[in-house]
Specification:
- The chain has 187 residues and is an alpha+beta fold.
- Helices cover 18% and strands 16% of the residues.
- It has two domains: 31 residues, no CATH class; 116 residues, Dna-directed Rna Polymerase Ii 140kd Polypeptide, Chain: B, Domain 6, CATH 2.40.270.10.
- The protein is built from four helices and seven strands; from the N terminus they run E-E-E-E-H-H-H-E-E-E-H.
- The strands form three sheets. A three-stranded antiparallel sheet has the order 4-3-7, with no helix packed on it.
- Helix 2 packs parallel to helix 3.
- The chain is extended and about 70 Å long.
- 9% of the residues are buried.
- This is DNA-directed RNA polymerase.
């Protein structure tokens, strides 16, 4: 077996399909062996990420840990999301997830809520208060570059984010010369 030129990775699964197991194969094929290969890639500028509430975005900048905003206890923030993504997509569930996640982390819990019957906002506020946090879920943050406190408290919490398969390394495309369309001025 050979991997196509330029590809690399670790075999994560092997599946064998045979006629004896009554699997449909092309005519004249008695057995098919499929190897699934995965590669680990660090996240990079241009990669797409999404949460569980339809909130998605593209990595615009990666900063050193010491330049990231940090909490009063010195914990740096992992990801900073654009707050304009909330009113534009109207997905308030992500705010509730952040608050519930922060309360659960402070209380040492793991949370799993039903999809359409999750924790109510007043329950989350009570949990935040029980955890010793503000009821509105906001906290003081400090600028990682200057060390100065931000003017207003900011919503900080724990949220599940995943990397989508729209990776910039797979989509990058360059071109040097060639004809252009007269109408669009594009290649």
């Amino acid at each position: 077996l050979r991997v196509p030129h330029g590809e690399a990775g670790t075999i994560v699964d092997i599946k064998i399909f045979t006629r004896e197991n009554s699997e449909e194969l092309a005519p004249g094929v008695n057995q098919v062996i499929r190897c699934y290969i995965a590669t680990k890639r660090k996240i990079s500028v241009g990669d797409k990420m999404a949460g569980r509430h339809g909130n998605k975005g593209v990595i615009s900048r990666i900063l050193p840990e010491e330049d990231m905003p940090f909490l009063p206890d010195g914990t740096p923030v992992d990801i900073v999301l654009n707050p304009m993504g909330i009113p534009s997509r109207m997905n308030l569930g992500q705010v509730l997830e952040v608050h519930l996640g922060m309360a659960a982390r402070a209380l040492g819990w793991k949370v799993a809520t039903p999809v359409f019957d999750g924790a109510k906002d007043y329950e989350i506020e009570d949990l935040l208060e029980e955890a010793g946090l503000r009821r509105d879920g906001k906290t003081i943050l400090y600028d990682g570059r200057t060390g100065e406190q931000f003017i207003k408290p900011i919503t900080v919490g724990v949220m599940y984010m995943m990397k989508l398969h729209h990776l910039v390394d797979d989509k990058i495309h360059a071109r040097s010369t060639g004809p252009y369309s007269l109408v669009t001025q594009q290649p």
